[in-house]
């Protein structure tokens, strides 16, 4: 994690405060979650793609990280097509599987909504430095400093899981442990990784308490979190994307409240 993500923290998005990026992602997400139509999702996908095209990100490294999101959208679309709420013309039916006009429309809307919410969220979080996000949440959002610092420390340890997994695999292979049985081998590795994570977390907690991170009262910050013109531009773009998605959907008669 610490060796891959800095490559994405370049370009215009690097000058935007992580709190603003988080606010923009949540704004678009909650707007799209309020409706189940496909028009608003298409508008959001097109607009966010146009904005992110100017972000100057290394797309050869971004696209592999978006691949699981595409797979999730396709699987959700197929499942909704087969088992969605039937309505309109019936195209094919077999047992509990029924493909209708309504299930197809809902499947398209679901798949597009996953992309519309997931793509900007993944890209924005790739450009976020965890330390800057913690500074912003504590100083601008005024979340409890103890909680923010603890979450930051835990997040820093996540990047070590792959290295730990690789080291445990090589060590067990060198000792000839669990050479047979893939399921048994993975179960042993998961348990060993869990024990290692608990031990490391306990040591980190003790070290942080010894250095005064859990002390009561206000604390100082090495890097002040501020908001500037890039944050205002990003927030305006986020509001514009959400508003245009709603306006186009309502004007075309496609808006449908998720609760109705």
Automatic annotation (TrEMBL):
- Using the record for this protein, list the coiled-coil segments as residue ranges, or answer none: none
Which InterPro entries did the record assign?
ABC/ECF_trnsptr_transmembrane, ECF_transporter_component
GO cellular component terms listed in the entry, alphabetical order: plasma membrane
Q: Which residues cross the membrane?
A: 25-54, 66-86, 106-128, 140-162, 182-198, 232-258
Instruction: Report the locations given in the UniProt record.
Output: Membrane
Keyword Transmembrane set for record: yes
For membrane topology, the record states: Multi-pass membrane protein
Entry's Pfam families? CbiQ (PF02361)
* Alphabetical keyword list: Cell membrane, Membrane, Transmembrane, Transmembrane helix
Tagged with keyword Membrane: yes
Q: PANTHER family from the xrefs?
A: SLL0384 PROTEIN
Q: What is this protein called?
A: Energy-coupling factor transporter transmembrane protein EcfT
Organism this protein belongs to: Gryllotalpicola protaetiae
Which lineage is the organism of this entry classified under, starting from the top rank? Bacteria, Bacillati, Actinomycetota, Actinomycetes, Micrococcales
């Amino acid at each position: 994690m610490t060796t891959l993500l800095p490559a994405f923290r370049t370009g215009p998005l690097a000058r935007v405060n992580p709190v603003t990026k988080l606010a923009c992602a949540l704004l678009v997400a909650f707007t799209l979650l309020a409706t189940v139509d496909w028009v608003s999702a298409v508008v959001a996908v097109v607009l966010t793609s146009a904005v992110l095209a100017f972000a100057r990100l290394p797309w050869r490294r971004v696209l592999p990280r978006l691949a699981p999101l595409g797979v999730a959208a396709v699987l959700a679309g197929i499942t909704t097509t087969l088992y969605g709420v039937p309505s309109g013309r019936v195209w094919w039916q077999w047992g509990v599987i029924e493909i209708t006009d309504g299930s197809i429309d809902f499947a398209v809307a679901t798949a597009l909504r996953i992309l519309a919410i997931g793509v900007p969220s993944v890209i924005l979080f790739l450009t976020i430095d965890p330390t800057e996000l913690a500074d912003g949440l504590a100083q601008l959002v005024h979340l409890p400093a103890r909680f923010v610092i603890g979450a930051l420390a835990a997040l820093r340890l996540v990047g070590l899981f792959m290295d730990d997994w690789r080291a445990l695999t090589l060590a067990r292979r060198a000792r000839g442990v669990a050479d047979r049985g893939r399921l048994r081998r993975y179960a042993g590795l998961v348990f060993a990784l869990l024990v290692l994570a608990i031990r490391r977390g306990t040591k980190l907690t003790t070290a942080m308490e010894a250095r005064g991170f859990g002390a009561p009262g206000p604390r100082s910050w090495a890097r002040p979190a501020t908001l500037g013109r890039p944050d205002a531009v990003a927030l305006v773009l986020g509001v514009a994307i959400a508003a245009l998605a709603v306006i186009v959907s309502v004007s075309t008669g496609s808006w449908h409240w998720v609760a109705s």
